[in-house]
Amino acid sequence: MSDGGKTKTTVEIYGQSYTIIGQETKMHMRHVASIVDDKMREINEKNPYLDINKLAVLTAVNVVHDYLKLKEQYEKLEIQLKEKE
Hints:
alpha+beta; two-stranded antiparallel ribbon; 16% strand; flat; Cell division protein ZapA
């Protein structure tokens, strides 16, 4: 870790190196990068003619969609738990 409790690590996403600085562990940041890389490759398999910018945007849209679906499920579970109390 560097000053201020921040961690710096280099990751590879879709063949490009990125330096990421954050408060999470290197392992966590690498895991996040791996998920992004996997998602980009998954989308590229289905749409091999997309340029890198469109691929990145579609990846972001897909990841946010997945996040929102999980958030909705979490909120429903919270409501169900409160109803049982």
